[in-house]
Design a protein that fits this description.
The protein is globular, with a radius of gyration of 17 Å. It has one domain. Helix content is 26%, strand content 10%. The strands form 2 sheets. The protein has a two-stranded antiparallel sheet with strand order 1-4. The protein has 5 helices and 4 strands.
Length: 121
């Protein structure tokens, strides 16, 4: 695809289903940046920096269940502001029982290839 001058990062995006495959903090799975970059103070408080999306957002106790493992309680100020921001980003996200997958879509205006979104792992 390099000969076609296609940026693969702009063609393939993560689509979270059950959250078993993608890193909560280190992958771009919601929004356009890694959560560790957006919320560095919270990331520094995280006990398991390699946790998966399912570890923090799960369906066990309802669709909006969030489970945290901080090394100490979140303090007022910057940490509380970052937690509020994170919860705001997550407010519309609900995991599902389907598998995580990669979704692809290439803009037909590029006259290279037209691909319908697909979800396969």
């Amino acid at each position: 695809m390099f000969d076609l001058n296609i940026d693969l990062g702009s063609v393939f995006v993560k689509k979270v289903g059950d959250g078993l495959s993608f890193s909560f903090w280190k992958d771009i799975w919601i929004g356009e940046q890694k959560l560790e970059t957006l919320f560095p103070r919270l990331f520094s408080l995280e006990v398991n920096k390699d946790c998966k999306v399912v570890d923090r957002c799960n369906l066990n106790n309802g669709p909006h269940t969030r489970t945290w493992q901080w090394r100490r309680p979140v303090r007022d100020g910057v940490e509380k502001e970052q937690l509020d921001g994170l919860l705001n980003i997550l407010r519309h996200f609900n995991p599902s029982f389907s598998n995580d997958c990669w979704e692809y879509s290439i803009d037909a205006s590029e006259d290279i290839l037209k691909a319908e979104p697909s979800c396969r792992f």
